[in-house]
Amino acid sequence: MPHRSESVERGGRSCPEQEQYVTHGSVIGLERHIERVVSECEKLKNVLKTPCKDVDPFVERNRHEARRANSQIIESDRILHILPTNKPKQKEDGTPVDVPKTGKEIRDLDHSKADSLLDMYEIPYLPNMFLHEKKELYLRFIDASGDLMHRVLD
Question: Model confidence over 86-96: pLDDT tens digits?
């Protein structure tokens, strides 16, 4: 890209109408954007490096079967197979965690319910994530089909 004082040469003559200027402000803005993206990537890398808790092989085998069945569901009103967990299905205050049974129920989750669900299954997430990102994490965890994901998240 030509700098301020340079112009595009065409046929041995300069074409001032095609000059492109790089301003100091645009460079600074781009640098800040890159810094924010790099910072967010670092945060996500740290989340991904968080070791997964040990899962009982029996639980994992049952999760595999449920995921296989969930991957075939494409309608948001069909009943999903609930994945077993090592933890009791209750929040820290002792109230039970409602595991959504359909794509429609996943679509209706709020932040609090999504957080409880992700915590119960020990799915790593950042607290400042958008709600649709939390829902997407859960949908990927249960191996929802692409069609169902679109119906829930769109």
Answer: 776 656 655 55
Task: Compute the CA torsion angle 111, 120, 60, 53 (nearest 10 deg).
Answer: 110
Does the reported pTM lie above 0.70?
Answer: no
DSSP H or E segment with residue 61: helix 57-70
Q: Coil, strand or helix: which one is 12? A: coil
Domain boundaries, the chain: 9-49, 57-153
Angle CA 138–144–147, to nearest 5: 125
Token output for 55: 């899962």
Nearest residue to 69 via CA among 58, 82, 51: 82
